[in-house]
Design a protein that fits this description.
Layout lengths: L1 E5 L12 H13 L4 E4 L2 E2 L8 H17 L5 E4 L2 E3 L3 H7 L7 E3 L2 E7 L9 H10 L2 E6 L5 H5 L1 H10 L2 E5 H4 L5 H12 L5 E3 L12 H11 L2 H18 L7 H17 L7
Parallel strand pairs: 1-2, 2-4, 3-5, 5-7, 7-8, 8-9, 9-10
Antiparallel strand pairs: 6-7
Helix pairs in contact: 9-10
The structure holds fe (ii) ion.
The site of fe (ii) ion (FE2) has 5 residues, from loops.
Length: 269
């Protein structure tokens, strides 16, 4: 399986605290049947001041550390952007990593407040769609106002937004209301796909395999595969955030040493 939402890059947000924990999270993901992930650090101005530069640099470093630890784990990077006024400035400055990019069409992973209804969110999503950017609403089943009113979720759906559900919600690791809404969104064909949103090794583990098994209990195999396997693979293939190729970096370093040698830079006087 592929995971398209996790907080594995160390030290950027409330996910992995350091390289050691990030490596352990990758190992845990592999044990859960996940062979690659899109790292999606929070972009939440004032709380998590990340941007394309900081996220891509961190992904390069972590990709190198996976190679160093001989862990065969595919890594790409994107972001989980809090709906906020700063989105416009950051998009204009090309400082938000998209989830996918394909022939001018893009996807952006967006999160809302869990408790307070995001007034103006519909208009903001409409503006993004007009620009060729599909908002992917992260974990809608955990938002209290969506749990109370399915009408609101339908409005975002009609607009053309997509919905990424958290695997742990389906197996009851969040509130019971989140589990009910996750189930309902599968049955009503509102769920676009599932991801882990893993943050650490214990309270926010991936749980993708368990959720996949749970999904198969009340939907058909084809739908479960679409939500947990096919769609995540498609998203991963279209994710533009590919860390610097470590094998190329090694070759470049060797070339630099070679040229220095022929230029006589390393000669002793
Ligand atoms: Fe997240």
């Amino acid at each position: 399986m592929i995971d398209t939402h996790c907080h594995i890059l160390p030290g950027l947000d409330d996910g992995a605290k350091n390289e050691r924990e990030a490596i352990e999270m990758a190992t845990m993901a592999l044990h859960d049947g996940i062979h690659g992930s899109i790292a999606t650090p929070h972009i939440n101005p004032g709380r998590f001041d990340n941007n394309l530069n900081s996220i891509s640099a961190s992904a390069d470093t972590f990709a190198n550390s996976l190679v160093r630890h001989q862990i065969n784990f595919k890594l790409r990077y994107s972001s989980e952007v809090r709906l906020c006024p700063e989105i416009d400035y950051m998009l204009a400055a090309e400082q938000i990593p998209f989830l996918t990019e394909d022939r001018g069409q893009k996807r952006l992973l967006i999160e809302f407040s869990t408790t307070n209804y995001p007034h103006g969110a519909l208009a903001k999503c409409r503006c993004l769609l007009d620009k060729g950017i599909t908002p992917v609403i992260a974990h809608p089943e955990r938002y209290r106002y969506f749990q109370r009113s399915r009408v609101d979720i339908a409005q975002f759906s009609r607009l053309g937004c997509e919905f990424q559900i958290t695997a742990s919600s389906l197996i009851g690791k969040f509130r019971q209301e989140a589990q009910s809404l996750a189930r309902a969104m599968i049955v009503e064909k509102k769920a676009t796909w599932f991801a882990s949103d893993s943050h650490n090794l214990k309270s926010r583990a991936p749980n993708l395999s368990a959720a996949y098994e749970e999904a198969k209990r009340f939907t058909d195999q084809k739908t479960a595969n679409q939500l947990f396997i096919d769609m995540p693979q498609k998203i991963f293939a279209m994710c533009p955030g590919i860390p610097f190729d470590t094998s190329i970096s090694t070759i470049c370093t060797q070339k630099a040493v070679t040229s220095d040698y022929f230029l006589g830079k390393n000669d002793e006087d």
